[in-house]
Amino acid sequence: MNMQTEQLKTLRDAAFRASQNAYVPYSKFAVGAALLMRNGNVITGCNVENVSYGLANCAERTAVFRAIAEGYNGADIVAVVVYTPGQKAYAPCGACRQVLAEFLQPETLITSTSEQASQQWRLTDLLPDAFHFDVSAYRE
Q: CA of 89: how far to CAs of 85, 115, 117, 122, in Å?
């Protein structure tokens, strides 16, 4: 299940750098995410807060939405690495898990890192029995 050490370090560094761009005036909890694309490119995202908390966006979703906006699709995402500040490595929130389930393959590796910890999961372990809808049945 482990990704190569050098590859993980590169993605962790990219996620950490992305966290430095986070807009977090309320929580002060700057998170960054890095997606490894099939072609070797890395797409990053950070969390962006809003005074109306429900309008905030997490780093994982920002990175996925950015990848889609740049022309990638879910099959292009090979791995996800998230950086969270502090000592604990946090799993993606429920909203992020559902967005990841929309675009990633069930076996995609997701790694959360912090200053002192690291955890890894497959998407299917983070969101078993994820909600999916077959849109092809509704296309003409």
A: 8, 8, 5, 15
